[in-house]
Amino acid sequence: MLVAGFPAGSFQTNCYVVAPAPGEECVIVDPGQDAVEGLDDLLREHRLKPVAVLLTHGHIDHMWSVVPVCGARDVPAWIHPDDRDLLSDPAKGFPGPARQMFGGLEFGEPDDVRELSDGAVIELAGLELTVDHRPGHTRGSVTFRTPLQDSQGEDSRVLFSGDLLFAGSIGRTDLPGGDHAAILRSLAKTMTLPDDTVVLPGHGPQTTIGRERATNPFLGDVAAGPSRGL
Q1: What is the distance between the alpha carbons of residues 50 and 26, in angstroms, rounded to a whole number?
Q2: Are 159 and 145 in contact (CB under 8 A)?
Q3: 147 pLDDT band (50/70/90 cuts)?
Q4: Distance CA 117, CA 168 (A)
Q5: Burial of 52 by CB count in 10 Å (0-12 exposed, 13-18 middle, 19+ buried)?
Q6: Cβ(122)–Cβ(78) below 8 Å
Q7: pTM > 0.85
Q8: Closest of 153, 145, 155, 150 to residue 192, by C-alpha
Q9: Do 80 and 140 meet the contact criterion of CB atoms below 8 Å apart?
Q10: pLDDT digits (tens, 9 = 90+) for 40-95
């Protein structure tokens, strides 16, 4: 499987492309601010054809470029219904004083928006992606997990964690729609994944479930349970 990405815009939000192999169809995860040029470069480099955009949540730093990306490629965007309103009104995701930064900016939905549901398995671009609703950072935050085969042919899995889980940290819950108790419940469910699960977060470097269980200071008792898998 091919996974490539880059940090987009001033928010440095990780935008990913995922495909079975170079020269195949792909999905795009979280096209953030000024992501179009970087995406075009990645798609050209790996000869990929996008078939969908997947959004881990509706915050502006993750979906800023969703309309131009979907429009240029004529592909749908997938988002959880609890965050769909943020596509056309991203200021709702910020406290009052911070909303002034949206002055003069206009946002809207792509022509084709499809809604994600907890536990759904979606098949796109020859990939099988499981959707897990993981609220707390926002009401509609989700993660995507998919099987992964390494260079030795060993089966593992990769998790696109959005702003739920980072290397050494977890998502903030102080913005509108955030809920600290909810994110702890979401993290508890996520930490049941096997230790070798590769975590590709919305910001910062990749990590693994095992590394975060052992070292992440924000997980505390959340990470203490055994790895049972999902």
Answers
A1: 5
A2: yes
A3: confident
A4: 28
A5: buried
A6: yes
A7: yes
A8: 145
A9: yes
A10: 999 999 999 999 999 999 999 999 999 999 999 999 999 999 999 999 988 888 87
Coil vs helix vs strand at 87: helix
CA separation for the pair 48, 44 (Å, rounded): 7
CA dist 182 and 128 (Å) reads 27
Element (H, E) at 53: strand 49-54
β-sheet with 121-124: strand ranges across: 121-124, 127-133, 142-149, 155-162, 198-201, 207-208
How does DSSP classify residue 9?
T
Are 54 and 202 contacting, i.e. CB atoms less than 8 angstroms apart? no
- CA end-to-end distance (rounded Å), the chain: 21
Whether the CB-CB separation of 161 and 201 falls below 8 Å is answered with yes
Q: What angle do CA 190, 127, 149 make, to 5 degrees?
A: 70
Other CB atoms within a 10 A radius of the CB of residue 75 amount to 20
Question: Which residues are bridge partners to 4 per DSSP?
Answer: 17
How far, in Å, CA of 160 to CA of 138, rounded?
16
In angstroms, what CA-CA distances link 1 with 14, 146, 147, 174? 18, 10, 9, 36
230 falls in which pLDDT band (50, 70, 90)? very low
d(CA 7, CA 214): 26
